[in-house]
Design a protein that fits this description.
By secondary structure, the chain is mainly α. It is 44% helix and 0% strand.
Amino acid sequence: MATSIEHIRAGKLHPLAVTGATRAEVLPNVPPVGDFVPGYEGAGWQGVGAPRNTPAEIIDTLNKEINAGLADPRMKARIADLGGTVFASSPAEFATFIAEYTEKWAKVIKFAGAKIN
C-alpha cells in the first residue's frame, strides 16, 4: 500500500479492496478481499534480519533500538500514514511469525501446483 496510497489520495487510483484480513485504517471505506473471498488474506510485511551466527548481544541491541524507533510516535504516525501497521516484537516472536507465514504460503503454493521453470 505504501507505493500506491498517494495515488489513491490524489484520485489517480481507485482501490477495489485491500488484501489484509481487515480494513486498512487509511482506507476505511475499502473492504478487504476476504469480504468477497472468505478466508482470503495476503498481507505483506517488512522486517530486519541478521546473519544466522550474529552474536546474541548484537541481536538484542538491534532489537531494542529498532523497537524503540518503531515506538516513536512520529515513526508510528508515518508508517500508519503509508497504510502500514507497526509490529514490534522479540527475535523469537519474529522467527515464529516467519515460520508460520512460510508454512501458510507453502500450502498455497503446493495447492496451486506452482512450479519454478
